[in-house]
Amino acid sequence: MGLREFHPFEAGGEHFLYMVPSAGVFHVNTPSWDVLRTLDGQPMSTEELTEALADRYPPDAVADAIQELQEIHAIGDVRLPPTKTLPVIPAQDFPLTTMVLNVTNKCNLACTYCYEYGEDKIVDTDFGEKPKFMSEETARESVDFMFKESGDNRVANLTFFGGETLLNFKVLKKTLAYARERAVALDKGVQFSLTTNATLLRPEVIEWLVENEVGVTISIDGPKESQDQFRVFKNGMGSYELVLPKIKELLKRHNTRPIGARVTLTKQNLNVMKIFRHLTDEMGFWSVGFAPVTTADGRDYAIEGEEYNRMLGQFEELAEEFKEAALENRHHGFSNLNETLEEIHKGMSKAFPCGAGLGLVGVATDGDVALCHRFAGSDEHKIGSVQSGIDRGKQSRFLETHHIAQKTDCHTCWARPLCAGGCYHEAHTRYGTTTQPNLHYCDWVRSWTDTCLRVYGEIATHNPDFLRQYDRAAQIPA
Amino acid sequence: MKHIKAINQKAVRIESFARSQALAQGEFGAGTDGDDVVALESRDSQGPHIPLGCSLVFAPGWEVDSSGGTAGLCQPVERDLFDCHNGCFWPVQVPDHLNHAADWTSTCATAQQDWRKIDLIFP
Prior knowledge:
heterodimer; A: alpha/beta; Outer Surface Protein A, domain 3; TIM Barrel; 10-stranded mixed beta sheet; 3-stranded antiparallel beta sheet; 15 helices; 38% helix; disordered C terminus; B: mainly alpha; Quinohemoprotein amine dehydrogenase; 2 domains
């Protein structure tokens, strides 16, 4: 008898196990923990184990602990092969949860690191064949496609995206109205959200967002010195001064949906705490999400080596703040942690890193359907079109080749239930193929997942009621 | 459970599954899974073909057949085991019977009946 696959962690002085690959989280008491410690690295028979622990526990207590640990597969026959994940792919009529509509691939900013326009772009957004703006007709066809593909789902989610989304405000308005009309006719719900760089948030746009309860995510990198480093106009001028009053006005007026900020972290912009303080305390955002810049290796702004540790240290500091807030039932806007806590609470064990090509698709300006918004317009990553529907053969092949069971590198990693190899787009940019797991940030993902687990364990111990908010039905992550 | 507490939703499901398994086992008598040799047997989950050991051209090694069992091997697995042990000196796959484990198969008079009695050797 020996240890099976799990990740042990400590939180609030208590011991926990994160089971792999099931993603169950168990609290273990001291006798059980001692059983596990004794078996670590040296398989033993039940008798030997009972003997080894005889000075601390009576035999029946050890027997109970062993039996329970066996039942949850924390310990077992070491000769058994590791639990295998079979490459089972979902049925072909898997419903679409979210459609991301790239209403334009044009942008009024020229952010240096942009994956759509910068050095690592996939699609020729400057001189390519795709129309710069989505037409009203294509947008309507997309809405019809979305409702058709949403199957039995009661609610469809439509996210407007770009380029700079608001450059095509005219089509946005008409598309939203059309989607509402179709939803009523089909007796379904529809929710809207939008991502923007905030430069075009004119009063009438804000009014429209409020009226239609459109969820808004603002791409912003933090205080002036952060924002103006990369988020610049074509002439190099920073955008902070322009967007600040517009964002303040939006936050003041728009209270029908929470408004989040999305920050791109780069080598030059890694002061997570400072950015977070600025965006929440000074600007008033409800939540802030951070994403390391997606880039090929060696770019000026790429986060590398030691910088990952710096980023991790800051994330941990913010996680500590989140935890303190959660223990007192206060809101804290660190959305990276909030989302991971929800995944941990539900025990998600992902077959795929995200819902791309499955519950989520991205639609290009001409109506081509791609894995997600980041691949919109790429012929290589096209899985259909809104006019002709999803090519089920292509979709199946994509799912078969991207299943966690195919990612040999991930098979011994305890963080695979949550990571599942990471973002396809990141992998494509870094390695030239979406099938490759993102091995450049494994250590960071494991450390960060461990931090999230410890926060989860501590909240579960001292304020379990806080976790009730995550008890909603499980959803496919987008 | 006395020593372990399910914390997240998945753990609650694992616990209730374990409980139902335990109940089922109580009803139908204890299973032998814990003590039996399992590496070469068919298990519940039918996966792809997984070779478990060596595979020479002449004598297919410790393998499972395409169903994960041993019924479809070219020759009995016991025979194969002894091919490694006696037929050729191949200490990686089987205990070194020339030097350290001369008695390894002494409890195994008839391979096809007694192969379960052959134990592991720990150096």
